[in-house]
Amino acid sequence: MLPPDQRHVLWDLLGPPPGYELDRAVGTRFTRDLETALVLPLAFASYRLARSNDPIALMEAVRSAASRVDLFCQAGQMVVPQRASGLFAFLEPMVHEVRRPNPGRLFHPKLWYLRFIADGADPAVRLLVLTRNLTDSSSWDLGLRLDGLETGRPRAANRPLADLLRALPTMATQPPGVERIDGIDRLADSGRREGWEHPQHLQDQPSFFVYGLPAVKERPEFHGYRHLVVAPFLTDGGLANVVPSDSDVTVVSRVEELDRLESDTLKQIGKTLVVGAAADLGDPDDSDDPGDAESAAGSAERSRLVGLHAKLYVVERNRAAHLFIGSANATDAAFDGNVELLVELKGGASKLGVDQMLRSESGFGAILEEYAPEGGADDDPTEQAIWALQQALQTLGELSWTVTVRVDGSGYTVHIGAPGSQVPGGVTITVELLTRRGTTLVVGNGEPVDGVLGPVDLDEVSPFLVVTASMDGPDGTVLRRSSVVRAHLVNDPEGRLDEILARQVDTPEKFLRFLLLILRLGDVASVVAAGAGDDDTWPGAWSM
After folding, report:
1. CA 6 to CA 283: how far, in whole Å?
2. How many C-beta neighbours within 10 Å does residue 199 have?
3. How far apart are CA 138 and CA 257, in angstroms?
4. Angle CA 182–130–319, to nearest 5
5. Residue 403: closest CA among 354, 463, 493
6. Sign of the C-alpha dihedral computed for residues 361, 5, 200 and 193 taken in this order
7. Which distant-in-sequence residues (6+ apart) come within 8 Å of 68 by Cβ?
8. What pLDDT digit, counting tens, does each position of 42-62 carry?
């Protein structure tokens, strides 16, 4: 039922139905990769103007697409790109960083909600509930796609989903503009009225469960006589939340996570499995949830990790199978403080039960092998140090950063400001412009950020900053983690965005490269691969 040889490119899942075009989209992730996020407005525009020969029309189409997309991610968790691109200007209004719901807890849902429109037809809606972040990760992940049409009446089962969508702007470090908030509210209203098509072998409409929002109280029922838990990160308390002590339990996870479980927990698990080394699909740049040790496990020693990032819970009771797909790992933080989303699907156990999921012939079992952990392993000191760095970045990412632009002769200078914030002792913090790497400001612990960088050219003026936290590790090596932070841009020079966009197509050669990029977006994998060049010519990493 989970065949690993059936894979989908994200953009294929985001594409509109035939005859439709995008009306509005909202996406949520824990981490965000700017280079991957940049594909989205380009790709949405490509559906309308893939064969246009008018550079102005193309650039306006891309800008228009960006105005209808909003992306939310945990503050302090935006991946730093290998190199800056002028095209990142498209992302400035659509990327929103979110505060942690509570200290030590995180914003962690992974979904796309898209509304499509067509002349003379009812609006079509698509929901993608994913287990991965918006990065170029090649790890084994799991996604749920639900398509439907808006109905005339609200559905109670959809309310938690609508509540999550409506809450997103209130959690942002910088609230989106009024038009964007109105657009998200309209999506939330759409979500309440959605009638979802039934995937194969499923019964009834799906149920939605949101954690971490005070107004959403309903919780899923995990009681049953047989359980399958697929989660890359585990804790003893997290497993206790999803499996009763008298159940037949199979757990699929990562080696180091199973090794850390207590021996009493392991005695209650019937079988423990990991993704086999021969099936390793590559480790993501995960840093997925330091609130429950995800960041530490994902960042410390990648060679130890297998390519598992899927989250799935299967519960059998009364000859029925209840599948829970979403963002929540089997950890304490996931079920007690994090903002998470799970979707429950129900079907017959003979079609969707544990045995079917683990079948070698057509299921997930083909890439799994048994592993017998002893349990009780100590936490790696290096992982704990990395966890402290990630915590510091999240704290700093939640600050009210400003970039104030001043004219300086023929160029500009930028003043970077932020309130002071305490970080762990021994951690050094620096900040620099994403567009001008190498010139940094050192931030004193607890002291306000107050410094000037420049001069810079007009196309280097940007609200995107790179904040870096570093410290000496247990073995004496320097550990370093960085994140992109979007500041509030003050005194934005008039015409800055127009000039940045114009420079992308200011010669016939550049326009041809841009057009080729648009045309190739149907194969996102090749576009990402094309970004691996080391020189400054196409196909380089957004090298226009």
Report:
1. 19
2. 14
3. 20
4. 115
5. 463
6. positive
7. 22, 23, 24, 25, 44, 183
8. 667 665 555 455 555 666 666
Q: What strand order describes the sheet that includes 411-418?
A: 449-456, 411-418, 402-408, 488-490
Identify the CA nearest to 135 among candidates 65, 180, 82, 177. Answer: 82
Token pair recorded at residue 300 = 């410390």
Question: What is the CB-side half-sphere exposure of residue 420 using CA atoms within 13 A?
Answer: 6
The whole-angstrom separation of Cα 291 and Cα 126 is: 30
Three-state SS for 9-46 is CHHHHHCCCCCCEEEEEEEEECCEEHHHHHHHHHHHHH
pLDDT per residue of the chain (544 residues) written in tens, 0 to 9 = 455 444 445 666 777 888 888 899 999 999 888 887 877 776 676 655 554 555 556 666 667 778 899 999 999 999 999 888 777 887 899 999 999 998 889 999 999 999 999 998 888 999 999 865 444 455 577 888 999 888 778 888 899 999 999 999 999 999 899 999 999 999 999 999 888 887 777 888 899 999 999 888 889 999 999 999 999 999 999 999 999 888 899 999 999 999 999 999 999 999 999 988 765 444 333 444 444 434 333 333 333 334 688 899 999 999 999 999 999 999 999 999 999 999 999 999 998 999 999 988 766 788 899 999 989 999 899 999 999 999 999 999 999 999 999 998 888 999 999 999 888 889 999 999 999 999 999 998 889 999 999 899 988 999 999 999 999 999 999 999 999 999 999 999 988 887 887 777 777 777 666 666 555 444 433 443 443 333 333 333 332 3
Dihedral of alpha carbons 245, 251, 253, 257, sign: positive
DSSP class of 239 = H
Contact 242, 229 (CB under 8 A): yes
List C-alpha distances in Å: 16 to 31, 118, 146, 150, 542: 25, 10, 13, 16, 25
SS3 466: strand
**CA angle (216 as vertex; 212, 221 as ends), nearest 5:** 90
Give SS3 for 419. coil
Nearest to 287, CA basis, from 123, 157, 480: 480
Among candidates 146, 123, 107, which has minimal Cα distance to 29? 107
Residue pair 544/538 in contact (Cβ under 8 Å)? The answer is yes
Provide the 3-class DSSP secondary structure of residue 60.
helix
Token pair of 411, please?
A: 């160029």
Q: In this structure, are residues 206 and 158 in contact, taking their beta carbons and an 8 Å threshold?
A: no
| Separation between Cα atoms, residue 37 and residue 88, nearest integer Å | 9
pTM above 0.90, yes or no: no
Q: What is the DSSP letter of 341?
A: E
Sign of CA dihedral 380, 383, 389, 392: negative
Q: What confidence score (pLDDT) does residue 345 get?
A: 94
pLDDT tens for residues 119-140? 988 889 999 998 654 444 555 7
